[in-house]
Write a structure and sequence with these properties.
This protein is 38% helix and 30% strand. It is an alpha+beta fold. It has one domain.
Length: 143
C-alpha cells in the first residue's frame, strides 16, 4: 500500500495508522522499488521493499489503528532532510580528506580519519534531534 504523489510544493505518501500515542500518530509507510511490481519478482534477488514507521505529532481524535492516511511533507523539508543526511556529511568527509592529504598525511590514514569525522557529525545531529524535528513537520490527512 504505497503511493507517492506530489503537489506543487509537497510530497505525499499513503500509509496506515500503526499506533496512537499520547503526542500523535505512528504511521506505517511501505516503500517498494520500481521492480517490486515486476512479473519476475519471485525469482529476482533485487526485490527491495521496506516499511518505515513515522512518529507524527498531531491531534489524534477520530483516528484508529488501521486507518488509511496520507502523510504530506513540504518539498523544502525533504530538501533539508537530504542536506542534513547526505550533502553535509559528504562535504565533511571531502573537506577533511583533502585537508589531511594536503597536510601530507598518508592517503589511507587520511581516508580513515575522514570517515571517522562522521561520528561527531552524526552525534551532533542526534543531540540536536528535538530542535531539528521541531523545524521539520509532517502533516496527516484522512483518505
Amino acid at each position: 500500500m504505497h503511493e507517492l504523489g506530489t503537489r506543487a510544493n509537497s510530497i505525499e505518501h499513503i500509509g496506515q495508522v500503526a499506533a496512537i500515542t499520547a503526542t500523535g500518530l505512528q504511521v506505517s509507510i511501505s516503500s517498494q522499488s520500481a521492480c517490486a511490481a515486476c512479473h519476475a519478482k519471485g525469482a529476482c534477488i533485487a526485490l527491495d521493499s521496506t516499511t518505515r514507521l513515522l512518529d507524527i505529532a498531531c491531534p489524534t481524535g477520530g483516528y484508529s489503528v488501521g486507518d488509511a492516511v496520507k502523510v504530506v511533507m513540504p518539498t523544502r523539508m525533504g530538501l533539508k532532510s537530504v542536506l542534513y543526511g547526505y550533502l553535509l556529511p559528504l562535504m565533511v568527509v571531502v573537506i577533511v580528506l583533502f585537508a589531511l592529504c594536503a597536510a601530507g598525511l598518508n592517503e589511507g590514514l587520511s581516508g580513515l580519519i575522514a570517515l571517522c569525522s562522521l561520528v561527531p557529525y552524526y552525534l551532533g545531529l542526534r543531540l540536536l534531534n528535538k530542535r531539528i524535528a521541531s523545524r521539520l513537520s509532517l502533516q496527516v490527512e484522512r483518505l
